[in-house]
Design brief:
Number of strands: 0
Number of domains: 1
Largest sheet: none
Number of helices: 4
Bound molecules: fe (ii) ion
Order of helices and strands: HHHH
CATH architecture: Up-down Bundle
Helix content: over 70%
Amino acid sequence: MPIRWDPRFSVDNAIIDMEHKLLLTLLNALEVVLRNPHEKDSLRFFVDQLYESAREHFHHEEKLQLKYMFPYYEENKEGHEALIVELDMIRNEIYNFIDKPDSSQDEADRMSREINHVLRDWLVDHILKSDIKMKGFMNDAR
Ligand SMILES: [Fe+2]
């Protein structure tokens, strides 16, 4: 099941919300592509997009948090670092999968479950518990 944007995810900053929507969309796309794992170019494209978009987004958020003296900056940054470690591991697994000539649907399904349980839960949890505290701090900031 794809994860859908929900108004309760909103931090009341249009750009941050847009970036969160993009990350969720890329996660959904990656899960869909894993159902057709012979599409290795698409697999590489989406995992790279997700990784790069997440890095840029975290960097943008941290920059705004510092500028607006967000009191939970450290806690939020630690969450980002942990997410990047997870993402990096999943990206490497997907690269290995792509490079293996006899990669199977079972392996793709396993990675899909991993993305589903670990990455998605973690990202949504991060938005709902940590990013949400930005509400009211930087509403119109870019
Ligand atoms: Fe965020």
